[in-house]
Amino acid sequence: MILYLSEKEIGHLVDIADAVNAVESVGRSMAARETIFEPRTRLRMKNGFLHLMPASMENDRVFGYKAYTCFKGKARFFVHLFDGETGVPLAIMEGDKLGQLRTGAASAAATRVLARRNAESFGLFGSGYQAESQLEAVLSVKKFKDIRVYSRNFEHAQKFSAMMGEKLGMAVRAVKDPAEAASCDVVTTITAATSPVLSGEFLRPGCHVNAAGGNMLVKRELDERAVERAGLIVIDGREQGKKECGDFLPLIEKGKLHWDDVREFGDLFSGAASRSDDEEITLFKSQGIAPWDVALAKVAYERAVESKTGTSLNL
Question: Is the pTM above the cut of 0.85?
Answer without folding.
Answer: yes
